[in-house]
Amino acid sequence: SQQGEEDPQALSIQEGENATMNCSYKTSINNLQWYRQNSGRGLVHLILIRSNEREKHSGRLRVTLDTSKKSSSLLITASRAADTASYFCATDNNDMRFGAGTRLTVKP
Amino acid sequence: DTAVSQTPKYLVTQMGNDKSIKCEQNLGHDTMYWYKQDSKKFLKIMFSYNNKELIINETVPNRFSPKSPDKAHLNLHINSLELGDSAVYFCASSQDGAHEQFFGPGTRLTVL
Fold first, then answer.
1. Which of A30, A97, A100 sits opposite B45 (nearest CB)?
2. pLDDT digit string, tens, across residues B86-95
3. Which residue in the set A42, A45, A96 is minimally distant from B90, CB to CB?
4. What is residue A3's predicted lDDT score, i.e. its pLDDT?
5. Do B98 and A97 touch (CB under 8 A)?
6. Which residue among A13, A50, A101, B38 has the highest number of C-beta atoms inside a 10 angstrom radius?
């Protein structure tokens, strides 16, 4: 089985700054997904990027995928205090695997 | 309208007891999952069910057993609870294994 592994484990920034989180995986994938989890709650799907895509945008989110390096990054621009949450990446290869997440804290 | 619901939200019980957590989805999805999130926030898949057939069974103790009475439900039954079972358990569903998953709110299990 494979899973996404996020880094850093924790990230603390000021409101308005950009936040970048990275994810690495081990074997080939069909797609990679990013999820967000607010404290004590379930995960919410943010964005899916397919293996033949290199970059994808959704609002203030930008996801890149480098299949040669088996890595992805999630960029949140102009962060807000409400972006404070844990962010997980998950890869699929007929099933879904999650990493341990990056805990983002955005200070007002 | 809740897409994926779990009950109970909190469960506190003694070691050795047997308990169940219920999960229901009204999305018409074919695949449902159970995850365990430990105190370090690591999210680990436990089971997934596709059309009432178990297709993933991670190396979880056989004290844990998923039960699916129909496509919309996947309940988690735990026998002889241990201290280490304390965690938050999340149910999720998806159209299939390659699509996004929709998560329930979680059940926080505390074993005393």
1. A97
2. 999 999 998 8
3. A42
4. 60
5. no
6. A101
